[in-house]
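Protocol step 4 of 5: obtain the predicted structure for the target chain.
Materials: sequence only (see below). No template structures provided, no constraints applied. The aim of this step is simply to have a reference model before the mutagenesis design in step 5. Sequence pasted as it appears in the construct record:
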Amino acid sequence: MAKQSMLEGVRIVDLTSVVFGPYATQILADLGADVIKIEAPEGDPFRYSGKPAHSRGMSPGFFALNRGKRSVTLDLKQEEHQKIMRDLLKSADIFIHNVRLTAIEKLGFGPDSVKAINDDLIYVHCVGFGTGGPYSGLQAYDDVIQAASGTATLTGRADGTGKSRYLPSLVADKVAGLHGAQAVLAAYIHKLRTGESQFVEVPMFESFTQFMLLEHLAGLTFDPPNASACYARQIDPDRQPFPTADGFVSIVPYTPQAWHTVFDVLGEPEFMTRSEFETPLLLYRNQAMLYQRTAELTPSRTTAEWTKLFNSARIPCMPVRDISDILNDPHLEATGFFEKRSHPSEGDYFSMRSPIRYGAYEGGKMRHPPHPGEHSDEFLQTSAPGADHQT
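Step 4 output (structure tokens):
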């Protein structure tokens, strides 16, 4: 007998776009929720984030964030489409959106209006900045959040240039998306226990700032501060992948004993007998010497040789790979992380499964990422007078 999806029967009306909200709702779709993606007539802007295989609006970026969802195209400025939206909300358990509250209220879908439509609905608002502060209501994109949180300065600290730059990833969007999925699940559990629905706000700025400051608040944790901000190990300019005879390798000795093991493997155990490393505190203060000497020794062997030697010695070590090589990673291949699928119009593509495994839920075949409005007709029919709303 097939195992039931954990969120089977849970309907989510999803009026989010780009990355933050769609990542949150994709996590929930992976768990079996019925996610109805509401798109404006022009579609989610992220549909155009990269070169499509065949059809306009079916970009790699959209594919990565919208599997398992049904797409309904609505122009919420039209009364007829507002009625369809109200009918969808009547049948939903959760409503999640990233529209500014002033704008969504004008359309008739603010918290109070939606409560009147469906008093049992959990209302989730994805925002750039939390309510109550001077940034409330400002637009937010990943770069803006990286700047505001102090993250954009970290690379310059680490490479010694002092030049601010953005991390080459939509990391703030994705971290906020994880918080969004967590918030939905927590609110849903609360409702199951108490019967109480609620309004939930998920702010991108606060979510990402908390994420980054877990280690980087550092000496500013205490009042008065006892040291500067930033976790020193993370911004050490010598903490880089080590060169090998044919590439680079990541070696992570995290304890004093591990450093001794590293130099045993490197064939220079006497280096660790120097006075600069006599105590753990001295070793910590002089780690730059250890990084520099390691970098001088690693070019003597290939990446594969060092990876085998250090892993055999139980020192964390992995080759530095190019992004284009990840599809061929033997571990990901063995665990079935990438699933090759065939889209009805776009052809073969790779989909990444949820990285989490559950003993009571095996997961099932997911819907393909939808074309804009692919499922609109289903809901136009169910919005007719007297129609059954249990699609």
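Step 4 remarks: Confidence is low (pLDDT under 50) at residues 384-391. DSSP finds 15 helices and eleven strands in the chain.
Proceed to step 5.
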